[in-house]
Amino acid sequence: MNERTLDILDQSLTLSLWTFLVAFIVVLLFVNQRLRARKQGLMDYLHKKDARLHEQQFEEKSPGAQRDDAFLLLSHRMRMVFQALVLSTGIALMVFILASFLPIAVLDNFATSTSSKNTPLRVASLHYDRFHEGFSLLGEVWNQTQEPISGLRAVITIWQSNQELLDTVSVPVVPDPVAGRSAGTFSLRYEKGSPLLYGYRLAFEDLEGKTISHLEGFNVE
Predict the structure, then answer these.
(1) For residues 69 and 71, what is the distance between their CA atoms, to the nearest angstrom?
(2) For the chain, which residues make up each domain, given as ranges?
(3) Is residue 219's pLDDT more than 90?
(4) Assuming Cys at both sites, which of 11, 26, 61, 161 could form a disulfide with 65, CB separation 3.0 to 4.6 Å?
């Protein structure tokens, strides 16, 4: 394994271990509360049972009942702790897989490591909303390089229903410049040619009008 792979695995393993510990503690607290409730319910039941059998001993239980009480509580405790262990392990494993392979802009993992070297921008979030007059876009783009990008603009090409070009709109990405390894946002509200709208295409340009390549990341519609 190369150093980059080891770094990614170490990052994912650290996140999954912390997740396991937090999940296990939370589930154990829940198990403890459930066991207390069950113990109280069992004690109440045995007291009522003893009261019916022994009218003179309202608060005492027979030795056999005490043994049954201990056995039942131990059985519940072991089963619930095992379930907590399995559940926490499953959650930690899911976090490990997501942290290793999900293309999240803020994480350096197997999904982003290759593209980060070659592609300057990653669209981390893009929300599309269609309304009667037109549509709106709200997006977040991540600068994957170490250098700031000045004059960055989002260029939205809009197509009409016959799939011919209808319009091209350019909106600024803020803040300007977008610092290295940080995010910028852009928004558009388009209210022309609503019945003719077919779709749109997103691109980015720098201050000189040159196209900057991008990838789509997490939560992009």
Answers:
(1) 6
(2) 3-101, 118-216
(3) no
(4) 61
